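Researcher: Re-running this chain for the archive, since the previous output was lost when a drive failed. Same request as before.
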Amino acid sequence: MSRFMAMGIGTDADRPSAQEIVDRVEKLRPWLREQQAVAERQRRIPQESVERLDAAGVFGLTTPRRFGGADFTARELHGVFRALGSGCGATGWLVWAAAGGNLWSCAFPDDVVAPVYASPWVGNRTFAVGGTSRRMSGTARQVDGGWLVEGAWPFATGSVHASHGYLAVFLDETDDTKVGMVLVPKDSLVARDDWDAMGMAATGSQTVATDGELFVPDERFSTPRRLTERIAELTRQGLGPRRGGLARSLVTGTGVALGMADHALEEFLGAVGKRSLPYSPYASQLDAPVTHLTVGRAHTRIRAAALVADAAVTRLDRWDAEGREPSEGDVLQLHTDVAYVWDACASAVETLFHASGASAITKRLPLQLIARNCRAGSLHAAHGIDTWTENIGRALCGVESAPVSTGVLERRS
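Model: Regenerated structure tokens:
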């Protein structure tokens, strides 16, 4: 028996397949949709929803396999996220963001990380927050035996439900390339409960902060360089994670956008025969040609976005099977694909919302919430359509520029 099994961490036989998780999420879909408005009012996913999701196995999606997590392909992850997004976009976002945070578990020694996953817990075990500026991160100074960390980290998605957090810290007041990551218990941080947004409000993406300086022992400090080296070594040993890094996380996360778009089209079509069109010659919205144009336009945008996502997922899985990481040019294209999918889905949902009349603004109807959530997701820095179309256009034109900054995960400190 391995030491991880002895600690209560599951075996391969304990892990559900991706299709089993999708089936479980689809069974939960009516519940997730029913709880969307409740979640938005509470500004967090309700605990009962977290418990049901945990029982379905969604929080093990990218937990390191040696700690009992799944080892799904990009296509499998994308399918799970799309199923979640179709139930509740904010829930899908929370699960996706928390899954991405698990990548940092590969940067630390096994003896440090294993207890995080071995202890009894319901929900996501970890969350990760960082940024490309000091305003969105903390600072750290080295002392005997460890580091003194101080700061505030906004947009800490998943922190409400997690036991531990990975926090980005700057190490040098004069050099913004000197960054690290620290692993801290969530209960050592102060939650500011300041997340009150027009979209994705239910993700609970509050600011977490230290109360003065927090001591972090050396073994709970790491860097992006160590992360890269550890991932390469673990991959050689067959212990994962799969190749693709941040780009893989972003590509699979487009499933959340597509799931919300699926839900929006379903809602619109379910009500279109019941709506009248006041001040028009049509007794029913279903009779109006503009309705057919609206549905066709939205459907085509969603389908085009799904095909772009499918191509990106296919490439990632092919490269992983071939044992190679995506090149710099590949990553640029993948980021652009992700931005396109989010913007296309948000635009499709907004088209349907616009055609739904004044009654659609009432909060008892879900289309207005889907529209706000999907557009909010598209505005995430990693999904910005203008930024990424400019970046790839510049590359295609052969125009030299400073290196593209894609966050702390891409630094090489």
